[in-house]
Amino acid sequence: MNNQDREVPVYLFTGILESGKTSFIRDTLNDPGFSRGEKTVLIVCEEGIEEYDAVALSKNNIFIETVEEKDGLSQEFFKKCEEFYKPERVMIEYNGMWELDAVDEDNMPEEWTLAQVISTVDATTFNMYWTNMRSIIIEQLSLSDMVILNRCTNETKRNEFRKCVKIFNKKAQIGYEAAEGFEDALKEEELPFDINADIIEIDDDDYGMWFVDAMDNPKKYDGKVVKFNAMVYKPPKYPNTCFVPGRFAMTCCADDISFMGMLCKSNTEILFNDKDWVTVTAKIRREFLKEYRGKGPVLHLISAEKSTKPEDDLVYF
Question: What is the domain extent for residue 29?
Fold first, then answer.
């Protein structure tokens, strides 16, 4: 393969000191699903309590470069890494106090492509940093494809954290890691809406979470009334008293977009057109549908009103 055909993915890990970056990277490198002996350059820009075993890593074709100052992440430095190692991938453990302009792709060799930005956050210190260093936190998390909230306990307000992130980064996937001794703390996923309300109101940003939860746990929603904003889809095979309100969702990348909707039955003819946006209020019933190959959630329309398309109409996870 000549150099013009090479594409080197760059994985950028951000987070304040002691947020769990090193542990996460080390676990990733030890994951056989991720590492199969590819030549990897690990650029370390911060020293914490956790350290790497450079000798052990080198035996697995992983080589460490240490950068102590932000200016060290220069075009010349990246070029030397490319020429010396000819890596198959690059991982950068970034200093949590540096601005992110040093890792702009324009500074990197043309073969290098920023593939993913992953941020780690310590649940025990997030509120302190959010209050006192919000601009730094926002810069890191706003560029993240994935955010990992570490050291969660039963007291961790995961829903509040999720809302903080989604305010400025709707596309970020959010994961949670339990603190040692709290492995059971994350079994029950916290939902960003009140399932016990007379009418469960689903915000635009929470549609995906509600849809997946309702599909996975239809008994929990049987008899509940729900209200949400959605796009109209009228399958030709359905009678004119039925339609499917839903949203397009991107689960991992722009090439992986699918429509997430539920059958909605009405006592009267549906007068809306395909791709109209409506606010639906409906009661959920658990019923048999051949599409489910069994029982699943079916909406029974209470009301539907013309609405407006959200500024970002895609659903993200």
Answer: 3-178
